[in-house]
Amino acid sequence: MLTRERPPVLKFAIRNSKFEIVNPTPFFSFVRPLALVAFGGNALLRPEDSGTTADQLERAREAVRRLLPVLGRGYELVVVHGNGPQVGNVLIQNEAAAEKIPPQSLDFCVAQTEGSIGFLLELAFANELPRAGFRKEAVTIVTQVEVDAADPAFLKPSKPIGPFFTRERAAALEESLGWTMAEDSGRGWRKLVASPKPRSIRGVDIVAVLINRGHIVVAAGGGGVPVVMSEDGEVRGVEAVIDKDYAASMLAAALSADLFIILTGVERVSRDFGKPTEEALPEMDVETARRLLVEGQFPPGSMGPKIDAAVRFIEAGGKEVLIARAESLSLALEGKTGTLIRRGTS
Fold it and tell me: Which of 23, 42, 188, 317 is catalytic?
């Protein structure tokens, strides 16, 4: 039975130049254990794909089939997906049709992809669950995630999104629209947007009710739609993107999830990745994970946010985080691969 002991809000604050969790006490409990799984948008749309709806649906079915072992082990399930490639496509459509249709703001694009990807996952679950013998339904929540309007990230946009432009077109967009543009990996110029940290997730209690009724919930897709709240309580969307691993970590903590699973492209987290001294790490306590993160073992553009999200979840009262390759999730749940991060024994 679902219990609620406090309002469903988990917030971050800036302390000593770091984001720390203000109210880490979990408040939801469920009859069955809960797992929250986060995976990237590339799982549903890869660079080599045509990008058709049919191809994306097949990718969604592949993703869902890989999640079935989580249900098989008795967990209720929440899914958080990325949306980077999908938002990029929407922005390309915006650019191509700009002379005919007013371009959509970024928060609108994030909401649009949350809905469309959620629809694909709902279809995939509807087709795959009966085949595996599960009588469950999936439902998508277009999730608003509150950020701080004073977050320093808004002063230094750093997240490249959308299509690549020539230098000349990038300069014109900077002048006409006030965009911040930057050269990206020698492939052209891209728009940079702010990537603030999440402060709270709106509608967590709704997600909890759906879980308690046995539904699979798709929530906080793409990190959620970023919103800010004014002093008089007015809510509005903002042009930004939220890291989906941070949003997933916060949602997992707010729901008192028993297991937070982060799917990635490697079998295990490693120390000295890519070097002759590389060492796979089957298990870490949270203190070790935090220390290696501070030492720079996990780059900001790849494994760093995942380890940081794992640490935040456990510091907020979470139990375990499993980081594993999507294709090997079943083996990782058996302890045969993947990296398990736990609270220390002390």
Answer: 42
Per-residue model confidence (pLDDT) at position 171:
93
Helix axes 303-315, 244-254, angle to 10 degrees: 20
Residue 316 has pLDDT above 90, yes or no: yes
Give the model's pLDDT for residue 121. Answer: 98
pLDDT for 7 beyond 70: no
Between the alpha carbon of residue 325 and those of residues 68, 75, 138, 250, 262, the distances in Å are: 15, 19, 23, 22, 9
Q: Could you tell me if residue 167 is left (phi over 0), alpha (psi between -120 and 50 degrees) or otherwise beta?
A: alpha
Is 206 a domain residue?
yes
Count: domains in the chain: 1
- Quick check: is 41 catalytic? yes
Average pLDDT, rounded, for the chain: 88
Q: Would 318 be classed as within a structural domain?
A: yes
Q: Is residue 19 one of the residues assigned to a domain?
A: no
pLDDT of residue 23: 52
Percent helix, strand and coil across the chain, each rounded to 5? 35, 25, 40
The single residue of 41, 88, 221, 338 carrying the catalytic annotation is 41
Clarify whether 127 is annotated catalytic.
Answer: no
Whichever domain contains 307, its CATH number is 3.40.1160.10
Range of the domain at 107: 30-147+202-342
- Kindly name the residue from 82, 212, 306, 318 that is annotated as catalytic: 306
pLDDT at 88 over 70: yes
16 is catalytic: no
Both tokens of 172, joined, read 């014109």
- Assess if residue 13 is contained within a domain: no
Cα→Cα distances 30→70, 73, 312, Å: 16, 16, 22
CA 302 to CA 143: how far, in whole Å?
24
Check if 159 is active-site: yes
User: HEC states along 147-211?
Assistant: ECCCCHHHCCCCEEEEEEECHHHHHHHHHHHCCEEEECCCCCEEEEEECCCEEEECCHHHHHHHH
Q: Cα angle vertex 128, ends 124, 129, to 5°?
A: 115
